[in-house]
Amino acid sequence: MPDDEIQLRAGRLGFDVYLLADSRNVGYSYQWVRPPIEFFGSLIISYFDGADMVISKPLGEGNLRAKFFAGIAREKTATGDPGNFLSLNGSYLTGGHIEYQTQNWMYRVGYTELKFKNGYPPLKPLLNNLRSPDLNAFLPVAAVLADGLEIENKKFRYFSAGIAYDQGPLQAQLMVNRLSSGSLLFPANRAAYLTVGYRINQWTPYVTYSASRPSGNKTPAGLSSGISPAVDILAAGYNDATMSQFSNQDTLSIGVRYDLTEKSNLKFQVDQINTKQYLLIRNNQANWNGKARLVTLAFNYIF
Fold this sequence. Notes:
The structure is a single chain. The protein is mainly beta. 14% of the residues lie in helices and 47% in strands. The protein has five helices and 14 strands. The strands form two sheets. The protein has a twelve-stranded antiparallel beta sheet with strand order 1-2-3-6-7-8-9-10-11-12-13-14. A two-stranded antiparallel ribbon has the order 4-5. It is globular.
């Protein structure tokens, strides 16, 4: 800290792209059983190796903070396919946010870019077939579709904005984001959540609504079927790779947190889930109507 207004850090750092994002794996630190899936579920980074800088200045009745960071991601992220992971190792990350905080209010806007260094290995056979000279001799669009589906050296962008209010027993947060990328494997989507809690002694009942929706074209142009059995197989693989990533889901959560001690709490939460694109839901049955009720009891502690 060169002075009271500048803070510099280097090393392995938490990825706080959203409010609470850097502590989302510490259940004691927030009132929910889990962070809203529709909003936080799209985060594929928890930390990075690099540096950040925070500039803080008093402004009016509050404090203005600007944070900038850059570094390299190191993690692997699950894909829903057992045994297959997307490696982020070596992917370059840059971004920052501006935050203004008063006694009861916090306002924040942020932007981050992640440039994928690696491709997704299970996708390579499909991409190689789409790029084959024989196929492109009569379907030149196939190579274009392969380039659109590739993630290597493509950018993934996070844009977010949020407001938080905290006064006495009342707590409320509203966050919105938009995710986009240069790859059809990660189609653009928007997400938001609104949560309100009210503390009564050791009890904090709360209600949360969160939602995620596709943004832009929902159905990318693909290969025409019926040309040949081989092309039909490629078309099915292409459509599955693109359409399976669209997210259209919302959840209404009602719960209560009970503080046992200064370092432990109990939480009870009921989630009513309504999904159309199966965001973060795997092995769904063909006759499932997309609705589910999830009941959770959790014990959290810190030490």
